[in-house]
């Protein structure tokens, strides 16, 4: 069972949106689902990217957060971080995405 707020946020969404890196890591260790989206179809990674929490994004990525998931407006975490000028997160996401590209041998058109 997944407990949600009125905005459909889980404990993972809340911890990520507040920058609570340790809590995010603990929730993930105890089985929190990375792919769950809230009302705006954002994952915890979208929220960390939107708010500039690089450490939270790093933890989410280390647990396998999916970079390819778009939010309600069609934007992915990389776009959201770039729009907010969060270069540390942008660099991190590009590095992870580049590693994924090498594994599947395709190049997204926006790179």
From TrEMBL:
It is found in: Secreted; Target cell membrane. Its main location: secreted. It comes from the Eukaryota. One of its GO terms (biological process) is protein K6-linked ubiquitination. ANK repeats lie at residues 7-39, 40-72. GO terms for cellular component: BRCA1-A complex; BRCA1-BARD1 complex; extracellular region; host cell presynaptic membrane; other organism cell membrane. InterPro entries: Ankyrin_rpt, Ankyrin_rpt-contain_sf. Keywords: ANK repeat, Exocytosis, Membrane, Neurotoxin, Presynaptic neurotoxin, Repeat, Secreted, Target cell membrane, Target membrane, Toxin. This is Ankyrin repeat protein. It comes from Trichonephila inaurata madagascariensis. Coiled coil: none annotated. Transmembrane segments: none annotated. One of its GO terms (molecular function) is toxin activity.
């Amino acid at each position: 069972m997944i407990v949600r707020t009125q905005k459909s946020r889980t404990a993972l969404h809340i911890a990520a949106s507040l920058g609570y890196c340790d809590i995010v890591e603990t929730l993930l260790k105890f089985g929190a689902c990375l792919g769950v989206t809230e009302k705006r179809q954002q994952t915890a990674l979208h929220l960390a990217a939107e708010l500039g929490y690089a450490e939270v994004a790093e933890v989410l990525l280390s647990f396998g957060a999916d970079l390819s998931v778009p939010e309600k407006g069609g934007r992915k975490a990389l776009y959201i971080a770039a729009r907010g000028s969060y270069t540390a997160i942008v660099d991190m996401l590009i590095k992870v995405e580049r590693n994924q590209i090498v594994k599947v041998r395709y190049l997204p058109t926006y790179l």
